[in-house]
UniProtKB/TrEMBL annotation:
GO MF: tRNA (adenine(58)-N1)-methyltransferase activity
InterPro entries: SAM-dependent_MTases_sf (IPR029063), TRM61_C (IPR049470), tRNA_MeTrfase_Gcd14 (IPR014816)
PROSITE patterns per UniProt: SAM_TRM61
Annotated keywords: Methyltransferase, Nucleus, S-adenosyl-L-methionine, Transferase, tRNA processing
Entry's localization field: Nucleus
Positions of S-adenosyl-L-methionine binding: 120-123, 141
This protein's record includes keyword Transferase: yes
Domain of life the protein comes from: Eukaryota
EC number: 2.1.1.220
Protein name, per record: tRNA (adenine(58)-N(1))-methyltransferase
Swiss-Prot/TrEMBL GO biological process terms: tRNA methylation
């Protein structure tokens, strides 16, 4: 079952960085972090200080230099990178397992997915990308802080994060639910 296109749901193909964007700051293969770009923001690390204002207007993937001459790369937040940089508030699934879940459940664009247990949001962001642009992920977590923290990913406009038990909230879902993933 594939849903009709919903005009208010669009993937953003804007490849330049602007204020409010989530950016993955890549120092080296084992040193990355997610940063929300803000007007007064600064990232400081062993390579120098990097002003967020220097990032705006640059394309994702750019190499930017700090005031000491060091550099970092500014990467777009894909689900794969998000899984590597997110705060592990719970045990998470990694890309190999996520790929198997999505394939096994035949999750494709247009599906509606119910996820019970948002956790750190690793699976949620990959599910949201898999169902985009016409599908939707409804995810529930009983822990309020985990549900709130998971909302910041780039794919959050394809997901609804709720703080409560899914059984208590099932009545608020549309009657077009296609896939249920635990």
């Amino acid at each position: 079952m594939v849903l009709q296109d919903l005009p208010d749901k669009k993937l953003s193909f804007n490849r330049t960085i602007k204020y409010g964007d989530l950016v993955i700051v890549y120092e080296k293969h084992d040193a990355m972090k997610a940063v929300m770009v803000s007007e007064d923001g600064v990232v400081q690390n062993r390579f120098g200080a990097f002003q967020h204002s220097d990032w705006t207007g640059k394309p994702f993937g750019s190499k930017v230099f700090g005031h000491k001459g060091g550099f970092v790369y500014l990467l777009a937040p894909t689900p794969e990178l998000w899984t590597l940089v997110l705060s592990h508030r719970t045990q998470i699934l990694y890309i190999a397992d996520i790929s198997f879940v999505i394939m096994y459940l035949e999750i494709v664009p247009g599906c509606l997915v119910l996820e019970s247990g948002t956790g750190s949001g690793s699976l949620t962001t990959s599910l949201a990308r898999a169902v985009a642009p016409t599908g939707h992920v409804f995810t529930f977590d009983f822990h309020e802080q985990r549900a709130a923290s998971a909302r910041i990913s780039q794919f959050s406009h394809f997901s609804q994060f709720r703080h409560n038990q899914p059984v208590q909230s099932i009545s608020v879902l549309p009657n077009r639910l296609f896939v249920v993933a635990n």
